[in-house]
Amino acid sequence: MTPTSPSWADVEKFLGVDGWRQIPAAERGGHRQAHIFFEKLLSDGRLLQTHISHDRSKKISPGRFGTILREQLEVSRADFWQAIRSGKPVARPVETEEAPVEHDAWVIAVLVGELHMSAAGIEGLSEEEAIQLVHEHWARRTK
Asked: Is residue 129 within a helix (H) or strand (E), and if so which, with residue range?
């Protein structure tokens, strides 16, 4: 069984196994960045890019992890963990079964209208995380 919420260290391990290149700070403007950036050139000529947190122990929410898998790494959850276990890169292209989370309209209404969240912020949330934020917000309002 594999965790649904990996740490940034897990993502960094995947990037190493999968042949991603760390982009030196000098190529990104030279000053200390809030994240560590990586890129991978695919055989079809596309350039994938991602970044990780300096805090490798920090966990990634399941919703955000799904977005990273689908939009940045272009791998499935199973391929991600298999690459780490086997030490072998992912053969692309792959099916990424990570569909965007579709939140209920009432959840989006609260997240946008009352919590002032952006579309990108909401997209990074799992269904459970979004509902939990709404319930926490409502609980604070009633105190």
From this structure: helix 127-141
